[in-house]
Amino acid sequence: MKALLLRWWLFLCIQGAVLAIANHFGFFQDLFLKDPTRIGFGILGILLVTSIWIGKKVFKLSKLEVVTESMKEELTNDLSIQWFIAESCLVLGLVGTVCGFIIMLGTAFVDIDVGNITSMQNALSQMSIGMSAALYTTLMGLLSSLVIKIQLVNVERTIEQA
């Protein structure tokens, strides 16, 4: 069980390094500027809180000396909330995608004059804002769900092998 704690800690350190690199390259500034829905930051917050929550469970598991069959079933069932959260990150990413498309299509063609180049440029500019919101929230939802699921699979495999 101590190996589980070390694997979780390594994974958390990797997450921190990836977030630091993303910040260095201005990813979070781009996310703030190009996602007017702010769903991407909400998904990122859910990822961080859930990772810490899983870490608390891993710490408690690492203190156990012996794991009985009834404890294995209880511990595995206890992770169902985190699995739901992982799936919710995917759904929130898709909600952000739909919101981005609504922004893109709802505002771009309101005052468009197809004969006027400036009007067309403004429409394309409005469309790019909605499209970037859609893509950023989809990316955040997919990555956050994947990271949470990797942690949960790690915990479940260790419980099964104990």
Q: How many helices does DSSP assign?
A: 6
Which stretches are poorly predicted, pLDDT < 50 over at least 5 residues?
none
Main sheet summary: none
Radius of gyration: 21 Å
Mean pLDDT: 89
Order of helices and strands: HHHHHH
Helical content band: over 70%
Strand fraction equals under 5%
**Which descriptor suits the 3D outline?**
elongated
Termini gap? 8 Å
Total strands: 0
* Sheet/helix structural class: mainly alpha
Structure description:
The longest helix is centred in the C-terminal third of the chain and has 45 residues, at 117-161. This protein has helices at residues 2-24, 27-34, 39-63, 69-78, 80-108, 117-161. It is 86% helix and 0% strand.
How do the helices and strands line up, and which of them pair or pack?
Blueprint: H1 2-24, H2 27-34, H3 39-63, H4 69-78, H5 80-108, H6 117-161
What's the quick description here?
With 162 residues, the chain is mainly alpha-helical. Helices cover 86% and strands 0% of the residues. It is built from six helices and no strands.
What descriptors fit this protein?
162 residues, mainly alpha, 6 helices
